[in-house]
Design a protein that fits this description.
With 159 residues, the protein is mainly alpha-helical. It contains four helices and two strands; from the N terminus they run ααββαα. The termini are far apart.
Length: 159
């Protein structure tokens, strides 16, 4: 059950909760559908983002033998046993978050409102603080191997 908790919580927060909050602050009625070109682009971004996040989670579970959900130094599920440096992790140190951000950009395009940008900005700030905390733990867990990885792969997409 402990293993499932992180996945369920991650789904509730990132796939459902934050987009629901974005929808709420947008003032859009439910359901609301944008014009076709915007809808297609928004759905494409959401699918790409979710796919990247799911690929990252599956890869972490198989190769890292652990769970990604470690919130502000509180282990919510068993941590990975191996440093992730291949698969989606060879392009970004945080592919799950990059996937979440791409998904959220799709939500923003769907809603076509400025207010959800505030929710997105707060999410990015809070998750960047989380990532910095996680980086300290990874340095403690994996030492020079993580420091070398950190030097060669960007935190998100760009150095």
């Amino acid at each position: 059950m402990r293993n499932s908790f992180g996945y369920i919580l991650g789904f509730l927060v990132f796939v459902a909760g934050i987009p629901a909050l974005m929808w709420f602050v947008s003032g859009r009625p439910f359901p609301w559908v944008p014009s076709l070109p915007w809808a297609v682009l928004a759905v494409a971004l959401m699918i790409i983002g979710l796919s990247l996040s799911i690929w990252s989670i599956v890869h972490m579970k198989k190769v890292g033998e652990g769970n990604p959900f470690d919130a502000y130094n509180h282990e919510l599920a068993p941590r990975t046993k191996h440093l992730m440096t291949d698969g989606p992790y060879k392009y970004t140190r945080n592919p799950m978050l990059v996937g979440v951000y791409i998904y959220d950009l799709g939500v923003l395009l769907w809603l076509q409102s400025w207010w959800p940008l505030a929710v997105f900005a707060i999410e990015v700030v809070l998750l960047t603080l989380q990532v910095r905390s996680e980086e300290k733990r990874l340095e403690a867990d994996f030492g020079d191997e993580y420091r070398a990885y950190k030097q060669s792969v960007p935190r998100y997409l760009f150095k």
